[in-house]
Amino acid sequence: MPFVLGADSSSPASPMSTAPQMNEDFSNQEWSDNSEGEEKKGGRMNWTEEENLKLISSWLHHSNDSVKGNSQKGENFWKNIVAEFNSNVPEDQRRKVPQCKTHWTKTNKLVVHFNGCWVRMMRARASGESDDQVMANAHVVYKR
């Protein structure tokens, strides 16, 4: 017997049919993935150039750790990076591990691309060119 729900039926055709009514109001229910009772911030927080530099600096500091080296586990590695990053920014600009990891994957591609431009300019360095001039040339090539 098929399951039929109609306006004129007094009982559902199946004992398992406890389908929610379409006119229920879910507006006062709280749906949150915040496990620590934190307030959910409205909107997206864009990354500033200063924050990008702080994230890169934190990543470099922890990836070049001479004591732990490359034997760090990913979870602890990123927790340490985010802890250092958050200690260097105002409280309203603090980020979580997933935000930093996601942003790093996007930012790292750009950093690697710039590094390639810089290496090419170092190899093509003219006699008497200063480091600042090489950097300026790398910026020009990168922007192209």
From TrEMBL:
Q: Which PROSITE patterns match?
A: MYB_LIKE
Quick one: where's region Disordered?
A: 1-46
- Stretches of Polar residues bias are at 24-34
Q: Where is the composition biased (Low complexity)?
A: 7-20
Q: Which CDD domains match?
A: SANT
- All copies of domain Myb-like, residue ranges: 39-108
Check the record and name the PANTHER family matching this protein.
OS01G0527900 PROTEIN-RELATED
What is the protein name for this chain?
Answer: Myb-like domain-containing protein
Report the source organism.
Panicum virgatum (Blackwell switchgrass)
